[in-house]
Amino acid sequence: MIDKINTHIAEVKAFNAESKKEVEAFRIKYLGKKGILNDFFASFKEVPNDQKKAFGQAVNALKNTAETKVAELKETLEGKQEEKGIYGDLSKPGEPIEIGARHPISIVKNQIIEIFSNIGFNVSEGPEMEDDWHNFTALNLPEYHPARDMQDTFFIQTDPDILLRTHTSSVQVRYMENNKPPIRTISPGRVFRNEAISSRSHCIFHQVEGLYIDKDVSFADLKQTLLYFTKQLFGKSKIRLRPSYFPFTEPSAEVDIYWGLETETDYRITKGTGWLEIMGCGMVDPNVLKNCDIDPTEYSGFAFGMGIERIAMLLHQIGDIRMFYENDLRFLEQFKSSF
Ligand code: DAH
């Protein structure tokens, strides 16, 4: 009888399983209600008294070995499954990694930066939350100036001196306060206006501001710089400067590019004229220079400002400004680009 038990112990020790099912079948065979161990326990009363002790010890040894075996096998099989859970099937071919796309606003912004950096402009930035001085007063827009109304401003309720900047011209002021001429800088950034949202306007959009201050800077320099820019960005080589008004420049102008009248879309977007307005510009008003501690008798300069959304809409024929902010992947994925 004891020999039989020892054979079982050897068998249990040698047992191995590939699946939980096999372990369960093994457990039932030895430890189940009608299993081998219970058979041995049942035959206990037939064992002669002098052998009872040795028999009992042998049966207990078999029970312990079987229980340990079952627990061990369960543990290793579970471990294996966890490994699979984390790493999956390691022999499978890899999944392709999709290349993302930059946002069209970033692409166009980077294009503009690149064009101006090629002619010596650096990039400067300023805060989106501004004070009255940098957004208005220093730019020749004192309190009660009617032109303040043109820019529907978001004020911070608790402090009427603090607002969300309505244009990136505020960065001009900051830059001039902190740097001496010659200055050649462009300032891209987000701006905010309390405007109704439609296909053509939004309350949050982006601008790029340009500023050039040095000795003897003239209006001709401004025109030539903008002509270079429009040629590079749009491939169009005809521009016109229409007289306009901005408080911070004198004289001021609106820049139009000749888009052409080749397609129906050209007719529609230029309203049949062939011309498209793309930015505002002018010679920096002497008052603005004074406000920034630059002597207007020694230095002069020009400035310009454009909306990035407008430029991106023209370049990529986007009909609705809201597309930029909806994060629709079908729209965004069309802009896979190296910029
Ligand atoms: N700040 C103007 C706007 O938001 C744009 C602008 C016009 C900027 C003329 C300039 C400029 O620097 O000279 O509408």
Automatic annotation (TrEMBL):
Swiss-Prot/TrEMBL cofactor(s): Mg(2+)
Amino-acid positions noted as binding Mg(2+) in the UniProt annotation, renumbered to this chain: 250
Protein name: Phenylalanine--tRNA ligase alpha subunit
One GO cellular component term: cytoplasm
PROSITE patterns with a match to the protein in the record: AA_TRNA_LIGASE_II
InterPro entries reported for this sequence: aa-tRNA-synth_II, aa-tRNA-synth_II/BPL/LPL, Phe-tRNA-synth_IIc_asu, Phe-tRNA_ligase_II_N, Phe_tRNA_ligase_alpha1_bac, Phenylalanyl-tRNA_Synthase, tRNA-bd_arm
Signal sequence range: none
Keywords: Aminoacyl-tRNA synthetase, ATP-binding, Cytoplasm, Ligase, Magnesium, Metal-binding, Nucleotide-binding, Protein biosynthesis
Compartments where found: Cytoplasm
Cofactor note text: Binds 2 magnesium ions per tetramer.
GO biological process: phenylalanyl-tRNA aminoacylation
